[in-house]
Amino acid sequence: MAEAYIIDAVRTPVGRRNGSLSKMHPADIGAHVLSALMDRTGIDPAAVEDVVMGCLDTIGPQAGDIARTCWLAAGLPEEVPGTTVDRQCGSSQQAVHFAAQGVMSGTQDLVVAAGVQNMSQIPISAAMLVADRYGYTDPFSTSVGWQKRYPGEEISQFRAAEMIAEKWQCSREEMERFALTSHQRAAAAITAGLFDGEIAPVGDFARDETARPDTSLEKMATLKTLTPGGRLHAGVSSQISDGAAAVLIASERAVKEHNLKPRARIHHMSVRGADPVWMLTAPIPATAYALKKAGMTIGDIDLVEINEAFASVVLAWMKETGCPHEKVNVHGGAIALGHPLGATGCRLMTTLLNTMERNGARYGLQTMCEGGGQANVTIIERLN
Question: Domain range for residue 322?
Answer without folding.
Answer: 267-379
